[in-house]
Amino acid sequence: MATPQPRFARIAAAIGDPTRALMLSRLLDGCHHTAKELADHAGIAASTASGHLRLLLDERLVRARSQGRHRYFALADGNVAQALESLLRVADGAGAAPATRWQSPAMAGLRHARSCYGHLAGELGVRLCQCFVQRGWAVAANDSADYPLTEAGAQALAAAGLELAPRLLVPGKRVLYGCLDWSQRRDHFAGPLAVALLEAFLAQGWLRRRADSRALDLTPRGRIALVDKLLTC
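^ that's the sequence the OP posted. Answer follows.
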């Protein structure tokens, strides 16, 4: 009797296909996308994309939601996003000069600020994490990846006018934890509060998404408000 194929081998094969890898990388922005949008990003026909998406659904790497006439796809959960980010770090470090690609002009936008499954990554994301710790708003726990929110941090965010849910501003609750940034090699914030913060930054007009990219632009308003309120330490 043939030995059953380990599931992680099937997962690796699903991710390793170049077309599916492009589709999954697009979904790392944390948003829902239609099959056509994913097909366009991967440079394939919509009919071809449907087969790839069916396989990704079968392997529970993505999830789908129907609304009206459209069907939207997103990464299945944060574990999938973390696995993809880890693979990106491995790929980036596989060459002789792993930092070279991040230093190219074409990568400047992603290096500065980008969405990482719904939270802020890149230089701005790392800076946000560092400032929270330096201001005493979060604690860098040495024995875990958690960054517990402090009473001072909860009060500062409540006063920032970001309309964050009170349940996210409970000191000591696991609402922030570290995600190793694969361009900066230091932590940026992940977790439910990190996701809510990015949504608030976008709603306030402090950051703006780029079309067909995970890159985020700091707006003139954000250069004043975001930097002054949260990124100066």
